[in-house]
Write a structure and sequence with these properties.
Layout (H helix, E strand, L loop, with lengths): L15 H28 L2 H6 L1 H27 L2 H10 L7 H5 L1
Length: about 100
């Protein structure tokens, strides 16, 4: 059974602070999705991914999740900058960046 993720439109009413917080959350979800993809990739040899329909479907599902999270991040990047996020973090030291954001 294939997972269905509907595209999400972010609220235009969010403040820069809310968008910054949401960006950090979504960034974390994207990191988890990529780790899921890599973990699953390592479980199979390349022939299995081509010849095994269950493995192929699982990889496609994980990739859909990656694309879902990336779609939300792309929308947020149209509204805020990395400097906006850094400013938000400076005002909220109890909130930490995740590994993926630090690398971007």
């Amino acid at each position: 059974m294939t997972m269905i993720l509907k595209s999400t439109k972010i609220s235009q009413d969010m403040t820069k602070g809310q968008m910054s917080h949401y960006y950090l959350f979504i960034d974390e979800q994207l990191l988890c999705a990529w780790w899921d993809y890599l973990d699953y990739w390592n479980e199979f040899d390349p022939d299995d991914l081509v010849n095994n329909p269950i493995a192929k479907e699982k990889m496609e599902e994980i990739m859909m999740a990656v694309e879902y999270w990336e779609g939300i991040l792309d929308q947020l990047k149209e509204k805020i900058t990395f400097q906006d996020i850094e400013d938000y973090l400076a005002l909220n030291p109890h909130i930490k960046k995740n590994f993926l954001f630090i690398r971007t």
